[in-house]
Design goal:
The complex is a heterodimer of chains A (437) and B (310). Chain A has 437 residues and is of the alpha/beta class. Chain A has two domains: 191 residues, Periplasmic binding protein-like II (D-Maltodextrin-Binding Protein, domain 2, 3-Layer(aba) Sandwich), CATH 3.40.190; 152 residues, Periplasmic binding protein-like II (D-Maltodextrin-Binding Protein, domain 2), CATH 3.40.190.10. In chain A, the strands form four sheets. In chain A, strands 2-1-3-13-6 form a five-stranded mixed beta sheet. In chain A, strands 8-11-7-12 form a four-stranded mixed beta sheet. A two-stranded antiparallel sheet of chain A has the order 4-5. The longest helix of chain A has 31 residues. The N and C termini of chain A lie far apart (73 Å). Chain B is mainly alpha-helical. Chain B has a domain of 202 residues: MetI-like fold. Chain B has 15 helices and two strands. In chain B, strands 1-2 form a two-stranded antiparallel ribbon. Classes of the chains: A alpha/beta (437), B mainly alpha (310). At the A-B interface, helix 3 and helix 16 of A face helix 13 of B.
Chain lengths: 437, 310
């Protein structure tokens, strides 16, 4: 009885010695993790193909520095928010970043990206297809290195097109696709949730009708708003047609890149026509490998160029992908530039295409034997789409423009022939700071 | 009885003695450091927001910052979007608080009177409150989606492929359901505290006088819980007015489900428009203040009394 208080006190003393020691050790390890190390280059990547990117980071690390991957959120808007907040605070630990192409002008004009000097610029843009090449330049200077390029094509079930009697070619229009799907009991998959990919769809259709959403974008907030035009109304007409058609998928207004994937080979029904990015091929191929899709079904998968908005005018497929930018406040700008070149070489692009289904920005990589898994005509289609692709508006105020368009065009079921005029007025007011977005 | 005693005591307050004055002085000195710290962490950002709200200021173009006076406020207050969002926010607040008050009161009664398995019942009622709002938002979003949710299967009057997030009305319902599910336990916890304060003697006396269950509830229990109900409604109303997480997760503000906090978030965080964003935060703050005043006036309860200070 008498010993127990003593013992307890003894134990308490021991504990009070252990706790600070443990805290100290923990704090030390946390501090180390915070990156006081001088030889680390932080590379902020979007979560696509992280396994291969990690390998690239290892391969491109040298005796001087080590490249460390930092993950960004999955949505383009969230990625921009996170990077911009770091850069606005002049974060010196943001060395390399994977950028959605539309954010390059905004970041460059805010002074957050380092300009690539002439020889580096030449090295990273050599042999790059026109679509992705256009995304890394701003005011005639190169601000990023194209790493991989994305584009959309029209994916479809051959049996569905046949049943509807639609002959598939690069001449096919949105109107024909929607009618054919409705006629044969199929559906049309698009991305029409209130997010960036809806803007991608609207922009591609407006460009496909020979118009644009805004022009003279280098004037910043004084850019000219053009969406109230025949091209704008043609795009609105297609959305209206789809929304009213039986070919619309029930989740049209919340659809994204993932929601329509399952409609291609549904349990019941003839499948769909779907505009979607290049990852689709590897996605369905993977289903064959794990047995949830038969080879016959997979062979029924067809692809053709992005549909035309109007007959007689070639379509302008969307261009996406990732460009590598170098942070303006990086402590090691020389190393970061060198690393940016290293992770965007033809070999690096080959690895991303082969292992992750992320297509190259350089033309020569498409003929590499490493890509033999992809059918030749598909590779050719992607390459052509990227070459003729239509960019989204290149503006330092792109985020405002995109959000303003989405605000007036969503929900797709509310789009009518007045929508372009309404969105033009709203966009003007937003750019002038006269309306809340 | 309690209320009566309190009232007489506060009417006949004794003269302030030297001793109590010294105590008050000591009290002030003791809280001073805390107040200074509070001013640093709360007043500074608030004043800074007030200052920034007078500028046209975008984080992406910091050099173009210019003083615009009250223009941001004029733009915000004359914009139909602000009023539309305010209306929907008030709707969220009124509907969720009303449902939570009724369901929460039932839960509080159950927790108060339950005889068997007390711990299990109390815990299971409180579980939703222990779940992070973002998680419950995702859970309810999955429940309501047409592809993999169960809601469409369970409800006889909607089709199997009904899209809850395609239009304003069903989307608002879904958001409200998630919000109510999540925060009703909080309400019932506050009400349970109020129930526990009602003296058993009074209820016994009412019983002896022949009052029915309903009469005991409306004449004895509820009037004596007024302070607790006020606190519960006030807390929840202010919380509900600032609703954000569920909207962010479930619709991301699409199909006109955006609340006033979400609007402010988008201007400041997504669009980096610090000027107009700050103006909106100031307006949001003022409207929260207004709601607090209205609720306190409506219930005619003195907050000090609610805290049981004489």
């Amino acid at each position: 009885m008498r010993r127990s208080p003593h013992r307890r006190r003894h134990r308490a003393i021991r504990a009070s010695r252990v706790v600070p020691a443990a805290t100290l050790a923990l704090a030390a390890s946390l501090l180390a993790a915070c990156g006081s190390e001088d030889d680390v280059l932080n590379w902020y990547v979007n979560p696509d193909g992280v396994a291969t990117l990690t390998k690239l980071a290892e391969q491109c690390s040298t005796e001087d520095y080590r490249i460390q991957i930092q993950l960004l959120p999955s949505g383009a808007t969230d990625q921009r928010t996170q990077l911009a907040r770091r850069l606005a605070a002049r974060d010196s630990s943001t060395d390399l970043m994977s950028l959605d192409p539309v954010f390059v002008p905004e970041f460059a004009s805010a002074g957050w990206l380092q300009e690539f000097p002439e020889d580096a610029a030449r090295a990273v843009t050599e042999g790059v297809l026109d679509g992705p090449l256009d995304t890394v330049t701003w005011e005639d200077k190169v601000y990023a290195a194209p790493q991989w390029a994305n584009t959309q094509v029209l994916w479809y079930r051959k049996s569905l097109a046949e049943a509807a009697g639609l002959s598939m070619s690069d001449q096919v229009t949105w109107g024909e696709v929607i009618d054919a799907a409705a006629k044969a009991g199929g559906t049309v998959g698009v991305q029409a949730n209130k997010y960036e990919a809806y803007m991608v769809w609207i922009n591609a259709m407006v460009l496909g009708a020979g118009g644009d959403i805004v022009s003279d974008t280098e004037a910043g907030k004084d850019a000219q708003v053009d969406i109230d035009s025949d091209a704008g109304r043609a795009a609105a007409g297609i959305i209206e047609q789809l929304a009213e058609s039986s070919a619309a998928q029930p989740d049209l207004s919340v659809s994204n890149e993932g929601t329509s994937l399952g409609q291609m080979f549904p349990a019941e029904g003839p499948g769909e026509f779907m505009v979607n990015w290049t990852f689709v091929y590897k996605n369905y191929l993977g289903l064959v490998d794990d047995g949830s899709l038969t080879q016959d079904e997979f062979d029924d998968l067809g692809w053709v160029r992005y549909p035309r908005t109007v007959a007689g005018e070639a379509s302008r497929p969307p261009v996406g992908g990732i460009d590598i930018g170098v942070g303006a406040y990086s402590q090691h700008p020389e190393w970061a530039l060198e690393a940016a070149q290293c992770v965007t070489t033809s070999q690096a692009q080959e690895a991303l295409a082969r292992d992750e289904g992320l297509m190259p920005a350089r033309a020569e990589v498409y003929s590499s034997p490493e890509l033999s898994e992809y059918p030749d005509d598909l590779l050719k289609l992607w390459q052509d789409s990227l070459q003729d692709g239509g960019p989204r508006p290149k503006s330092a105020y792109y985020a405002l423009i995109s959000a303003a368009v989405q605000a007036r065009w969503h929900s797709p079921t509310s789009v009518d022939q007045d929508t372009p005029a309404k969105s033009a007025r709203f966009l003007r007011d937003v750019l002038d700071g006269k309306a809340l977005l | 009885m309690n209320a009566h005693a309190t009232a007489t005591r506060s009417q006949a307050r004794p003269a302030v003695s030297d001793r109590s004055r010294a105590e008050a002085r000591l009290g002030r000195r003791l809280v001073a450091p805390a107040i200074v710290l509070m001013l640093l962490v709360t007043a500074f950002p608030m004043l800074r927001a007030l200052y920034l709200s007078l500028f046209s200021y975008s984080l992406t173009a910091p050099d173009d910052r210019e003083f615009v006076g009250l223009e941001n406020y004029i733009v915000a207050l004359t914009d139909p979007l602000l009023w539309r969002d305010t209306a929907i926010t008030v709707f969220y607040m009124v509907v969720t608080v009303a449902f939570e008050l009724v369901i929460g009161f039932v839960f509080a009664l159950v927790m108060h009177r339950v005889i068997f398995a007390r711990g299990v019942i109390r815990t299971s009622i409180l579980i939703p409150y222990g779940i992070i709002t973002v998680v419950s938002g995702f859970a309810w979003q999955f429940a309501f989606t047409a592809q993999n949710g169960f809601v469409n299967q369970w409800l006889p009057f909607v089709g199997a492929d009904f899209n809850w997030f395609g239009e304003q009305t069903p989307a608002v319902i879904a958001i409200c359901v998630s919000e109510i599910w999540k925060t009703t336990p909080f309400m019932s916890l506050l009400l349970l505290a109020g129930l526990a304060q009602v003296s058993e003697d009074m209820i016994e006396a009412a019983k002896v006088d022949g009052a029915s269950w309903w009469q005991r509830m409306t004449r004895v229990i509820l009037p004596n819980m007024r302070a607790a109900i006020m606190v519960a409604v006030l807390f929840r109303a202010l919380d509900a007015y600032r609703i954000f997480d569920n909207i962010f997760v479930m619709t991301n503000g699409a199909v006109n489900t955006e609340s006033i906090s979400f609007l402010t978030y988008r201007q400041t965080i997504e669009q980096f428009q610090l000027g107009i964003g700050s103006a909106l935060s100031v307006l949001l703050f003022l409207s929260v203040l207004l709601i607090a005043v209205v609720i306190v006036k409506l219930f005619r309860v003195d907050l000090a009394q609610a805290r049981q200070e004489g």
